Amino acid sequence: MSSIDAAGNVKTVIGGHRSRTSALLLLLHMRTFVALILVFAFFAFAAPNFLTTGNMLIVSKHVAQNALLAIGMTFVIVAGGIDLSVGSIVGLCAMVAGYLVLYGIDLGFLGIGYSLQFNTIEICLIALVVGVFIGWINGLLITKLNVAPFIATLGTLYVARGAALLFSDGRTFPNLAGNPDYGSDTFRIIGSGTFLGLPVSVWIMVVVALIAAYFASRTPLGRHIYAVGGNERGAALSGVNVDRIKLFVYMFSGLCAALVGLIISSQLQASHPATGETFELNAIAAAVLGGTSMSGGRGRVGGTIVGAFVIGILADGLIMMGVSSFWQTVIKGLVIIAAVVVDQVQQKLQARVVLQQNAN
Question: Any transmembrane segments, and where (predicted)?
């Protein structure tokens, strides 16, 4: 009788341990939502006017920008890479858009005495092509020349930022109201317009997020991205074109960065070459906080969106509380470190649970 009782007691202890482990894993899995609720609740009480309609619209615009960058960054990280150039791509594409709105393209070098002007759609397409082109260059450096992603994108960070400065000799392109005669007067709608009560930039983020989530979870392309990040050699042996996948993710990241450059220049109705500085930190923080593993092979667009909300609310809330920008940078760094540490803890717990299940 005693042996049966003892065995029963052991099973009860083991069962209780498993339930606690499962609860902890669930909490770690939901950590981004928990962080979002805590951050939102804190600033709702601590920051004056945080819950006003005007501030919520401002926050939503900032979140949309962070989310767009983070979606592109998520694809890159899931594929086993990193893209440090996204902030500089934002600045360069903003300068390209501003230049085209103000001046068009001067054809004087062809002996033609006028400039080529563009409407809003054409301006946006050109800026997006520039972003995709830089992403393509990143992909070529990594796949064809075997340059490490960190070094390749660090180099293009400097090149793109320098090109943005050269566009105007470091000056700002102001008053981007556009010209109705050329159809560029609607450029301001991208960053300042609203639809159904929400900023257009938020709708752009929603559309990109839905498309990205669909491709990530419902298409062979998405499965190949996860396969490359999880086991690149195994993916190659199974027939996946690894180079093509890497080219795609960096081009997509460049596209997302170009969208942010268009949104910011449209919203401010001005383009400055320093636009987008340190934006790569926000993108990485949102992706990692949303559950994307820095080792590749794991991450979700939905989690990244929630992570972008956390980063956006955190940044705006700190500003409203009067916290200096220096401390904000420190806090963002701590958020990235904490997110990586928590991710490692979650992976170790999951591995332990699998071992226990196999042992039993």
Answer: 32-51, 63-82, 88-111, 123-142, 148-168, 189-216, 247-264, 301-319
Phi–psi pair at 115, nearest 5 degrees:
-110, 155
Q: Which residues on adjacent β-strands are paired with residue 199? A: 194
Residue in the structure block whose two tokens are 């649970």? 353
Q: Calculate ∠ Cα 5-11-14, nearest 5°.
A: 145
Q: How far apart are CA 280 and CA 76, in angstroms?
A: 12
The two structure tokens encoding residue 289: 């906080």
Angstrom distances, CA of residue 138 to CA of 42, 46, 135, 153: 40, 43, 5, 6
And the tokens for 298? Answer: 């794991």
Going by C-beta distance under 8 Å and a sequence separation of 6 or more, which residues neighbour residue 47? Answer: 317, 320, 321
Q: Are 231 and 295 in contact (CB under 8 A)?
A: no
DSSP one-letter string for 274-310: TTTTTHHHHHHHHHHHTT--TTSS---HHHHHHHHHH
Q: What is the dihedral of CA 139, 337, 206, 278, to 10 degrees?
A: -60
CA distances from 82 to 9, 77, 139, 249, 303 (A): 50, 5, 11, 10, 18
State the fold for domain 26-354. Answer: ABC transporter involved in vitamin B12 uptake, BtuC (1.10.3470)
pTM over 0.85: yes
- 94 and 264 in contact (C-beta within 8 Å)? yes
How far apart CA 227 and CA 212 sit, in angstroms, is 17
Tell me how far CA of residue 131 lies from CA of 189, 248, 251, 299, 347, in angstroms: 20, 13, 8, 23, 35
Write the CB contacts of 308 (distance below 8 Å, at least 6 apart in sequence).
63, 66, 67, 70, 282, 286, 290
Closest CA to 64 of 309, 287, 255: 309
* Average pLDDT per 10 consecutive residues for the chain, totaling 360 residues: 43 53 66 83 84 87 93 95 95 93 76 77 95 96 94 95 89 86 87 88 94 92 93 90 95 96 93 89 88 86 91 86 81 79 75 68
Q: What letter does residue 194 receive in the DSSP assignment?
A: E
Amino acid 144: pLDDT: 93
